[in-house]
Every structure is written in structure tokens, then in C-alpha cells.
Amino acid sequence: MAGSPTVRRKRLSRRLRELREERGLTSEEVTKRAGFSRGKLTRMERDEWTRPNPADIEKLLTIYKVTDPDEREALLTLARQARQRGWWVSYSDALGRGAYVGLETEATRIRTVELMLVPGLLQTEDYIRAVLRGDDVTDPDEVDRRVEARLLRQQILTRADAPTLHAVIDESVLRKITPELRGQLQRLLDLQEPHRLQVVPDRIGPHAAMTGAFTILEFTEDPTVVYVETTDTSLLLEEPAEIRQHEDRFDRLCAVALSPAESRGFIQHLLDSM
């Protein structure tokens, strides 16, 4: 699997910050010694950069006294990998900066909660087009680009090293699937182990995710992150307390939701009634 430059860049940012702190240096001291412009190092350490410059990394490794050739080369290789462009860059018109897609691409486990839509990785083409129409996206070329980008995203589930997906969706998501979109219900029924789908039935009333949808992404070598998207913006949560809060919320939601087997039965009933 080709590594995601988004994940590589985040890993490099984290390691550079760790090295500076291990050496007991302030950002101001390092900035002066490296000859960086004001704020540049802070942006590097916060992953507010796009394409790391290996020459800048060389300067920092020298300042941090990283002399082991293997460690230096590993970090420089990380910088070179982080400069590469993911496939999603060519779909910036449909995906924006593609920050989430870059993380999703290398996740090993994805736990997602959706209140209004079928999770993107499980949407059928007809469903995607219907959602775009509902959002008043009518230009044929734009619609095609967005559909193509979404279907490319879904390819991660067919890889040999596919991430495990555990999706929890509100019953209202299913109630909005019309008869002409029945193929979307079948797609959900076709979801096989190790992936899981659970439905939160209306009868339980208010639940742990009423404040909004979210996605928890886990990685082999990198810390877990939580992605929260609203109509106007998106947030990437990385603080341990934030991660624990959302993991607890996810677990509580799973506890009140229908089991995967019960959820399949519920979806089958909806499909049969169409």
C-alpha cells in the first residue's frame, strides 16, 4: 500500500516537535538558529504545511543533534514521502484539500457515526447522485466529478489491507432511502465481516450522538484521531481527552443500537416492504 502523504506529514510534524522538546529548546531558539521566518517552525510542528522541504528538515536534525545515520535518513525519507501528492489532490474541486481522505487512506480501523447520511464508504452511485441533487448540485460535470471521487475513496475497502469499518447509523438515515434507491439498502445488506453495521432505532429516543456525527480513525504507527464535519467546517481532534470522549460516546451508542444481525433484519424488512 502506498503511504498517505497526509499521515506521513503528521508523523513528521509530531517527531520534530518531540525532538525539540527532548533537547529542551524553545521555538524561538530553533527559529533563530535555523534562520527560519517567524512562525515557520510552529506551522511545521502543528502540521500546518503542505510540502515539507527536506533541506529544512536537514537543518533541524543538525540543530537537534540527530547524528545516527539511520534515524536521519528515516526522517528525511519521511519528508520526501510527505511531499508526494495523493490521488485526491487531482479532485480538489470535489474533495477540497482532501485532509480527511488522506487520513482515511491509511487508517487500519474506522468507526463512524452518521445521523443523516449513509457513510460515504458505503454509498451507491445512485445514492450519491440523489444526495447531490438534494444539495442543489446540478452541473453534470461537477456531479460526475464528485461521484467519481467518492467511488475512488471506496476502493480502500477492497484492498488486501483494507481497514475495518464499524458504522453506526440512525434509523432516520434508512427512512430517507426511497424505493428508487433500494440498491442502497442492498449494499448495506451486502456488508460482510470483519466490517460491522448497527442501526440506532428511533424507539430509544435521544442518544449519545445527538450532538453530531463523527468518525474515529486508528492507525498502525500513529495516534488515533477524530474527524468531525459540519455543514460549514470540519475539525480534526487529536487530544487524548477528546479521543476518549468520542470513543466512550461510540461505545455507548453501540450498546443501545441494534446488533449487526438485528440491523440486517431491520434493513431487510425495509427492503422487502418497498
From TrEMBL:
Top-level taxon of the source organism: Bacteria
Domain annotation HTH cro/C1-type: ranges: 16-72
Naturally occurring in which organism (per UniProt): Thermobifida alba (Thermomonospora alba)
Official protein name in the record: Helix-turn-helix domain-containing protein
